[in-house]
Amino acid sequence: MRLLLTGGAGFIGSHTSLLLLQRGYDVIIYDSFVNSSYKVINVIKSYLDSDGIDYKLKTIKGDIRDKSSLEKIFKDSIKEGNAIQAVIHFAGLKSVAESVKYPLKYWDVNVCGTKNLLEIMKDNECYSIVFSSSATIYGLTNAVPISEDQTVSPMNPYGKTKVAIENMLCDLFKSNMNLWKICSLRYFNPVGAHPSGLMGEDPIGIPSNLFPYITQVAIRRINLLKVFGDNWNTEDGSGVRDYIHIMDLSEGHIDAIGFLKSKKSIYESINLGSGKGYSVFQIIREFELSTGCEIPFLIEGRRDGDVAEYYADISKAERLLGWSPKRSLKQICIDGWNWQRNNPEGYT
Ligand code: NAD
Ligand code: UDP
Q1: Probe ligand 2: pick from 162, 241, 278, max atoms within 8 Å of CB?
Q2: Does the Cβ of 17 fall within 6 Å of ligand 1?
Q3: Active site includes 278?
Q4: Residue 254: in which H helix or E strand, if any?
């Protein structure tokens, strides 16, 4: 089965690409490389080569806003007699802070880019798509665990583009309910790395998320961690989030593709998280215990727009996809540290 992975060279896309190739899927990665390195493609290839796996991978550099380039990929696949049967749509911009500064850029890439992709899919009779949505769309919620039927109320332009795309997908589904198979995966906090230590998260500049920040403190690229508030209404006063191992998350995409394949038509939004909440202090402690690295930290004021506690109700993913996360927080810390230690400068 041939799949198109937009943004397939990014953090989540690269791990998912490798898993799909290992399981015999034919993969086309389409990525502009604005937030990823071509080196990850070579890592994927050499990993598969060293395992003696025969794989089918094409990598094409391009932007999802470039209609003719996207169109060519679909048409060429049809000419080859190997049409693209489904798309996993990872491509997009994902920084909350940047989206506040440059909202039009986010609407253009995320929303207009997705509209382009959907038009091309429709024109070429490819009706299956798994979309990378985000838990950020739930906004300031007090009700944990968060289930999919909670009202969405995004707090920033990034989250608003994700809601707009979900709405666009839903409208498209309703326009022809016998045709489209759509699954929107709402990720919580993807962290950790491939167990080989060869692939992981490689943020540009200083990381804004907790986990890559901690691994960079561990490697001493950064002196200390700033903990954003110890006076939240949580058990130890620090913020609580749902951290999901990147390998568990990647497996969720394979299950989502299988789910779509088994349906005549469908539209679903599904949370992917660990279903557990861990505080910042718990993460620091577990990281120190699992890796032996000391993480010096300092308590700072709360970060703008933060919430106390956020974790997923994952019963829908378990029920519909037959998916559940398998890896522990300890595994997340060990794999994340292994990647950072082997690649102190990331892919560069
Ligand atoms: P990432 O930045 O590592 O990957 C995104 C990929 O898309 C990158 O390789 C980038 O080069 C590519 N890209 C960006 N704009 C493009 C364009 N116009 N055309 C083609 N390619 C383009 O991010 P990620 O963490 O792998 O996230 C993947 C998706 O999941 C994103 O849509 C993101 O919004 C969503 N998501 C991520 C998280 C997270 O914490 N990592 C959480 C929730 C949702
Ligand atoms: N956090 C922190 N210091 C940092 C980065 C994050 O204390 O340098 C806290 C943040 O306030 C939140 C948790 O760690 O409680 C997770 O933050 P992250 O940005 O990783 O995820 P998000 O808040 O977007 O879910």
Answers
A1: 241
A2: no
A3: no
A4: helix 246-261
**CA torsion through residues 144, 181, 66, 40, sign:** positive
Instruction: State how far the Cα of 305 lies from the Cα of 241, in Å rounded to an integer.
Output: 14
Closest by CA to 183, choosing from 172, 169, 171, is 169
- List the one residue out of 30, 43, 55, 13 whose CA is nearest residue 250: 13
The residue type of 30 is Y
CA distances 214 to 131, 136, 193, 210, 295, Å, are: 29, 21, 14, 6, 7
323 touches 251 (CB < 8 A) = yes
Dihedral angle of Cα 324, 26, 266, 108, to the nearest 10 degrees: 100
> Are the C-beta atoms of residues 211 and 159 closer than 8 Å to each other?
no
Residue nearest to atom 1 of ligand 2 (CA): 210
Q: Which of 25, 138, 158, 310 is catalytic?
A: 158
Question: Residue 150: exposed, middle, or buried by beta-carbon count in 10 A (0-12, 13-18, 19+)?
Answer: middle
Q: Whose alpha carbon is nearest atom 15 of ligand 2?
A: 239
**CA–CA distance from 293 to each of 56, 205, 285, 299, 340 (Å)?**
40, 22, 10, 19, 12
CATH of domain 2-342: 3.40.50.720
* Residue 64, Cβ density class (10 Å: 0-12 exposed, 13-18 middle, ≥19 buried): buried
Ligand 2 — pocket residues by CB below 6 A? 189, 208-210, 213, 225-228, 239, 241, 280, 303, 306
Per-residue pLDDT of the chain (348 residues; tens, 9 = 90+): 999 999 999 999 999 999 999 999 999 999 999 999 999 999 999 999 999 999 999 999 999 999 999 999 999 999 999 999 999 999 999 999 999 999 999 999 999 999 999 999 999 999 999 999 999 999 987 789 999 999 999 999 999 999 999 999 999 999 998 999 999 999 999 999 999 999 999 999 899 999 999 999 999 999 999 999 999 999 999 999 999 999 999 999 999 999 999 999 999 999 999 999 999 999 999 999 999 999 999 999 999 889 999 999 999 999 999 999 999 999 999 999 999 999 999 998
